[in-house]
Amino acid sequence: KTSMPKLLVARAMFPDVLAQLSNFFELELNQEDRIFSQSELAERLQGKFGMICTSSAKVDQDLLSKLSGVKIISTIAVGYDNFDLHACTQHGVMATNSPDVLNETTADFAWALMMATARRVTEAEHFLRAGLWTKWSVDFFVGADLHGSCLGILGMGRIGQAIARRASGFGMEVIYHNRSQLSEEKELAAHHARYVDKQTLLRHADHLILALPYSPEVHHIIGAIELAQMKPSATLINIARGGIVDDAALIQALRNGQIAGAGLDVFENEPRFHADFLGLKNVVLTPHIASATERTRRAMVNRAVKNVISAVRGELPPDLLNPEVLEI
Ligand code: 8YV
After folding, report:
1. Which residue numbers delimit the D-isomer specific 2-hydroxyacid dehydrogenase NAD-binding domain (predicted)?
2. Best substitution site from 58, 102, 104 to test ligand 1's pocket, by max atoms within 8 Å of Cβ?
3. 213: Cβ below 6 Å to ligand 1?
4. Catalytic residue among 120, 191, 207, 288
5. Which of 84, 241, 285, 295 could disulfide-pair with 60, CB 3.0 to 4.6 Å?
6. Is 120 a catalytic residue?
7. For ligand 1, what atom is nearest to the CA of residue 97?
8. CA 164, 266, 202: angle at the middle one, nearest 5?
9. Which domain, by its residues, includes 43?
10. What is the mean pLDDT of each run of 10 residues along the chain (328 residues)?
């Protein structure tokens, strides 16, 4: 009897979705939902066909050089900045992600953060919960309007475009900056989004949403200089990745009133984010949950599962990120 290949599932979730795997693999689940250290990850990956993981698993040259026989790493995320694709290819490892199925859900959440930040929803709730609501006044928790304002989007991929489409219901103007300008057809579909340079985006946006993938080239692309160019009444929303924003500079800008507020779902060094955020009232802070709806997370896991099953069957994984690996 031939034994089945082994698969490391770095998180234990949606058992019914994972059940598809048991026809193909002997599974090793991370029942405790721990984030593995690099040495533990290397140990656990030894002798495995592959791994299903999340953004917290760092797959780099150092890790890969300790392994042999690993064929696929499949992340439950659209962002794959935790993978060194070049190193994966060199080591003959296929890398896959789970794109598309989270676009609309993530766009919804960007709007949730933008609305909560502009209208100071969490700040007002804290006030109420603290028993401080003893009287009411006309200038009580005044915030900024969304309707009729200018929405800026940095990073106009599939998620950025889904965010832009939603602006039509609010009568907002949409401007964006991206590595390249979208086709006219795509701009039209994205509520007539207008391509501008980065400086114009920073200066004109009343609400600026970050929706670009992380790479070393965009590290701290929003720092002290950029924040100083934004309107004092503006809000900054990050549903992309920590590291795009210089968090220390953002804290300064929020303290000094250089911008009005920030809605953040991602942070540098999460889950150990900058503690000074907690002392600020003009922030809405969430623990990386923009894609977290039951339906979408199931769809993401399903996609990650499909990728490893294709690989073990000798088929092309639908979301292969490094097709060059097939030529090796
Ligand atoms: C993931 C994300 O849920 O898709 C991404 O890039 O950031 C989230 O949707 C998270 O990264 C876990 O892998």
Report:
1. 112-290
2. 102
3. no
4. 288
5. 84
6. no
7. 4
8. 50
9. 6-101+294-327
10. 86 88 94 87 96 95 96 98 98 98 98 98 97 94 98 98 98 98 98 98 98 98 98 98 98 98 97 96 98 98 97 98 93
Question: Do residues 244 and 110 both lie within one domain?
Answer: yes
Query: In this predicted structure, what is the pLDDT of residue 32?
Result: 79
Instruction: Give me ligand 1 centre to Cα 79, in Å.
Output: 6
Q: Is 125 a catalytic residue?
A: no
- Domain of 270: which CATH number? 3.40.50.720
- Whether the complex's predicted ipTM surpasses the cut of 0.95: yes
Residues 309 and 267 both lie in one domain:
no
Q: Is 239 in the pocket of ligand 1 (CB under 6 A)?
A: no
The backbone region for 13, taken as left when phi is positive above 0, alpha when psi lies in -120 to 50, beta otherwise, is beta
The reply to whether 288 belongs to the active site is yes
Instruction: Choose among 44, 49, 73: nearest CA to 59.
Output: 73
Report if residue 1 sits inside a domain: no
Q: Report residue 29 CA to chain centroid gap.
A: 24
The number of domains in the chain is: 2
Residues 6+ apart with CB under 8 A from 169: none
